Amino acid sequence: MEFAEHIKTANVEDVVLRQPLQPPSRGTLCITGHHLLFSDREESDSRQVLLLLRNIDATEKSVENLTGYSGFFSNASHSERMSGSSGTITMKCKDLRVLQLDIPGMEQCLNIAHSIETLSCLDCVSEMYPFFYRPVELSLPEQWGLSSPEMHYSQMKELYEKWRLSTVNRDYSVCSSYPPAVIVPKSIDDDTLKKAAKFRQGGRFPVLCYYHKKNGMVIMRSSQPLLGANRKRCKEDELLLQAVIEGSDKGYIIDTRSRQQAQQARMTGGGFESKSFYSRWKRFHRPMERGKALQESLIKLVEACGDESNNMDRWLSKLENSKWLSHVQNALSTAGLLVECVERDGHSVLVHGSEGTDCSLLISTLAQLIMDPCCRTVEGFLGLLEREWIQAGHPFQQRCAHSAYSHARLQQESPVFLLLMDCVWQLWRQFPLALGFSEALLLRLATEVYASDYGTFLCNSDQERCALGVKERTHCLFQALLRPTQRDYYSNPLYERTELAIWPSVHPQSLQLWKGYFLRWTQQVRHLEEAQEEIRNMVIEWGKLACS
Amino acid sequence: RSQISVPVFMFFLSFYYCDNGLSSLKMELLSDVSLLPGEERITDKDIIYICPFSGAVKGKVLITNYRLYFRSSDADVTVTLDVPLGAISRVEKMGGASSRGENSYGLDITCKDMRNLRFALKQEGHSRRDIFEVLFRYAFPLSHGLPLFAYLGQEKYAENGWTIYKPIEEFRRQGLPNNKWRISFINKSYDLCDTYPTVLAVPYKSKEEDLRKVAAFRSRARIPVLSWIHRENQAVIVRCSQPLVGMSGKRNKDDERYLDLIREANDTTKLTIYDARPNVNAVANKATGGGYEGDEYQNAELIFLDIQNIHVMRESQKKLKDIVYPNVEESHWLSSLESTHWLEHVKLVLSGAIQVADKVSSGNSVVVHCSDGWDRTAQLTSLAMLMLDSHYRTLRGFQVLIEKEWISFGHKFASRIGHGDKNHADQDRSPIFVQFIDCVWQMTKQFPTAFEFNEHLLLTILDHLYSCRFGTFLYNCESVRDQHEVRSKTVSLWSLVNSKVDMYLNPFYTPESGRVLYPVASMRHLELWVAYYIRWNPRIRQQQQSPVEQRYKELLALRDEYLKKLEQLQLSDSSTSSHLANSPTPNTTSSSTSTPSQQYTHLQTPL
Question: A single GO CC term, please (chain B) (predicted)?
Answer without folding.
Answer: sarcomere
